[in-house]
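Closing statement on the adenosine-5'-triphosphate sub-project.
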Amino acid sequence: MELLVSCKNAVKNFGREKALKNVSFEIKKGQIVGLLGENGSGKTSLLNCIAGLSHLSSGEVSINGVSVQDYKVKRELAYMPVVNLFNPKWTIKNAVESFSGLFPDFDIKKNADMLKILNISENTEFRSMSSGTLAKAKLAFTLSRNVKLYLLDEPFANIDLVAREEIYSLILREFNPETTIILSTHFINEIEMLLDRVMLMKEGRITADINVEEYKEKNDKSIVEFYREIMKTEVS
Ligand SMILES: Nc1ncnc2c1ncn2[C@@H]1O[C@H](COP(=O)(O)OP(=O)(O)OP(=O)(O)O)[C@@H](O)[C@H]1O
């Protein structure tokens, strides 16, 4: 069955704070989708709910019709959170052993290739990594799982320009039409060539949802211009 991520009337409240206000969309396989939006607009909350890590206050997120709260569905997607989930005392080698044991879909060869491209050796300890190296390692481990859905929360934060460009190429190289990537980022001016679709969040809602190629053909505008325009309009 083809992958279909479906989010229906998702509401997420943290006490009185309304992080998601009735968010609905569908995503079919074979797309790299960018979640854009200012700080606090709800991107991480949405990714956490798609990953099944956070319970919605109401509404539902499902993959191929099965709720993401189902253990099996959760295991079949790869999520890269902003925080570091690796044990600081581990080396890369320890992490490879751990991922291989935890995830039957973990591809050791793919991981080794990616770490080589990113210039990270197997004896490097997580506690000794710079924030940029840690970000690269997190991404390499996430993308080394052979799954159909990757959720990447700010995968380019703390990474220098040259390494970001390496990572954009890596994502494009690893991406295939059977997979889907949903990522959040603030590097709007750089990721245009990476994205098929942009969902723009503002104050807990999706205020715009576009196919990048179609939008650019029709409007002769960059995604940065599109972003600025939408951010100027008020949310009712
Ligand atoms: N655990 C929490 N408890 C209370 N409020 C929260 C919690 N997590 C998020 N929020 C609030 O929910 C709203 C959305 O936050 P979220 O982290 O999803 O935004 P974001 O778009 O990812 O922001 P950023 O770009 O800064 O990472 C914010 O107002 C935030 O303060």
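Residues 161-174 form the longest helix (14 residues). With this model delivered, the sub-project is considered complete and its resources will be redirected to Aim 3.
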